[in-house]
Amino acid sequence: MICKVSFVVFVLFLLGSSSNGIPDSEVKSICSKTQNPAFCLSLLGSNPSATIVDLTQHVIDIARGNVSNTIKLISNLIAQSGKNPKAKEHYKACLEHFGEDGALGDVDYTQELLHKGDYQGVNLAAASIADDVDDCISGESPTDPSFNDLSPLPSHAKVIESVVAVLLVLSKSLGH
Ligand SMILES: *[C@@H]1O[C@H](CO)[C@@H](O)[C@H](O)[C@H]1NC(C)=O
Fold first, then answer.
1. Atom of ligand 1 at shortest distance to CA of 66?
2. What does the similarity note say (predicted)?
């Protein structure tokens, strides 16, 4: 009898742990670890059945959309900077930092690692996305000449950095 009861309890536990999402209070606690909790909460929304893996997937999708949009923007900026070699050089460097060998490739890598369940890897790959974005905006080394960018690119970069900040905190909560 005791054996039967504990089996039922065990099955209920399995059902509970595999289908229940994380409560709003945990989402709040995750977002409180970011610099902009309100942005984080709006990004994660309120989805009672979502697990941390689901939320991480959601944020990776947003990051991919944002990076793709930014690549389009940079391509347009390159096309428009015909008579300004300094601008063209800056935007060409940014295109590399955002492309397959940069931010876009790292977003895909977070996806691959999430599927594999390598949560620490997700965290490291997310950090690389932030580095790629920073390399575009600030240059790869402190001695790089700064470019006074009046295009929407710096504000796109800020959005991506905020999205990545959420991804960093989420991926730290994965597997705990
Ligand atoms: C980033 O993605 C979000 C969600 O899809 C969207 O609302 C926002 O406009 C995007 N921002 C950029 C700069 O692509």
1. 14
2. Belongs to the PMEI family.
At 3-52, the pLDDT tens digits run: 666 655 555 555 544 456 889 999 999 999 999 999 999 999 888 889 99
Q: Is 97 in the pocket of ligand 1 (CB under 6 A)?
A: no
Residue 81 is assigned to a structural domain of this protein: yes
Asked whether residue 13 is domain-assigned, the answer is no
pLDDT at residue 2, as a whole number: 57
Number of separate domains in the chain: 1
Is residue 3 in some structural domain? no
For position 47, which CATH number holds? 1.20.140.40
pTM for this prediction = 0.86
Q: Summarize pLDDT for 164-175 with one digit per residue, the tens.
A: 999 999 999 987
Joined together, the tokens standing for residue 11 give 């099955």
Structural domain including 116 reads 22-173
